[in-house]
Design a protein that fits this description.
The chain is globular. The longest helix has about 35 residues, at about 135-165. By secondary structure, the protein is mostly helical. It has one domain (about 10-160, about 195-260): CDP-alcohol phosphotransferase transmembrane (TM) domain (Four Helix Bundle (Hemerythrin (Met), subunit A)), CATH 1.20.120.1760. It has helices at about 10-15, 25-45, 50-65, 70-95, 100-130, 135-165, 190-205, 215-230, 230-260. It contains 9 helices and no strands. Helix 2 packs across helix 4, helix 3 (about 50-65) runs antiparallel to helix 4 and helix 3 (about 50-65) runs parallel beside helix 5.
Length: about 280
């Protein structure tokens, strides 16, 4: 069955990576996920949806480990679950076998995995310590994750509406005036600005998104980093990661508000007629 399959290279797999991604995915997950994707693509007939289901099963087992207080096993399984979740999209783009249902399954599977792991982690630590703070931690993680994934598509929808209704800029007619050479006597840019530009170029070169705390880093902090450190790190690491994620969401909402200020409040129909009152 596999004899007629195309032999893919690692460069083929690298070409399927997202143009920009989280730093956790780029530096911690993709180096392993890309090589496993190559093995799966060349030696198996597993589908992207099959990988998504495997990722969900691993996530459920991770939640069970957390519920029984096995933090290291739970963290390791959560990492593997997320890595498999990264592989399904690469296989879909590599073999062009993605489906619309697969997009839904991947999205919903992520939410189920995070909520179940939050419940498992909270339950396991509450049963071990009797501290209600862990119940609040689990609820906070689930609510914050669901808010982010409900808010993101709505912000995208708002930006699309703004672009559709924003007037087009006037077209420049005639030659573009030449750019004046920079006067060497002008003061140089501040050092902080230069460092910021270097950081920006570094992030672009390595495909890393500019906002360094997103849902992926939040999940990694709560379900991988904190459990590997130990029980004492669960609350402080999760609280700090949650606060940083919340600040990032507030910043994104503020940027969206600035983006919408010059746009109409709702789409305008060109064929709409005024109704006399």
């Amino acid at each position: 069955m596999l004899e007629g399959m195309r032999a893919y290279s690692l460069n083929d797999v690298h070409a399927t990576r997202k143009r920009r991604d989280s730093w956790w995915t780029v530096f911690v997950v993709d180096p392993v996920a890309c090589r496993l994707t190559l093995l799966v693509a060349n030696h198996t007939a597993i589908t992207p949806n099959g990988l998504t289901r495997l990722s969900l099963v691993l996530g459920m087992v991770s939640a069970v480990c957390f519920a029984f207080g096995q933090l290291v096993a739970g963290a390791a399984l959560f990492y593997v679950s997320f890595m498999v979740d990264c592989m399904d999209g690469k296989i879909a783009r590599l073999k062009e076998t993605g489906t619309a249902f697969g997009l839904w399954l991947d999205y919903v599977g992520d939410r189920i995995r995070v909520v179940c792991c939050a419940i498992g982690l909270a339950f396991g630590q509450y049963m071990a310590t009797g501290d209600v703070a862990y119940i609040m931690l689990g609820a906070g993680v689930a609510v914050l994750d669901l808010f982010r994934y409900v808010n993101a598509p709505q912000m995208k929808r708002v930006r699309e509406v703004v672009r559709e209704n924003r007037p087009e800029p006037p077209v420049r007619i005639g030659p573009v005036p030449p750019r004046e050479p920079r006067d060497p006597r002008m003061p140089r840019a501040p050092r902080s600005l230069t460092l910021r530009r270097r950081l920006g170029r570094f992030l672009i070169r390595h495909r890393v998104r500019t906002h360094l705390i997103s849902g992926i880093e939040f999940h990694a902090a709560v379900f991988v980093v904190a459990p590997l450190i130990g029980v004492a790190a669960l609350l402080p690491v999760s609280i700090v990661a949650g606060a940083l994620l919340l600040l990032n969401e507030v910043f994104l909402i503020y940027r969206m508000w600035l983006f919408t200020r010059a746009a109409p409040a709702a789409p305008r129909s060109e064929n709409a007629q005024r109704v006399p009152v």
